[in-house]
Amino acid sequence: MPATTKTNSQLIINGILNENPIFRLALSMCPAVGISTTVMNGLLLGIAVLFVQVFSSCTISVIRNYIHPKIRIPTYTLTIATWVTVIDLVLAAYMPAAYKEMGIFVKLIVAFAIITMRLEMFACKNSVPASFWDSVGMGLGFMFAMMTLGFVRELLGMGTLFGYDILGFKPLLFFVLPAAGFFCVGIMMAMFNYIELAYNRKKKG
Question: Which of 15, 40, 44, 120 has the fewest other C-beta atoms within 10 Å?
Answer without folding.
Answer: 120
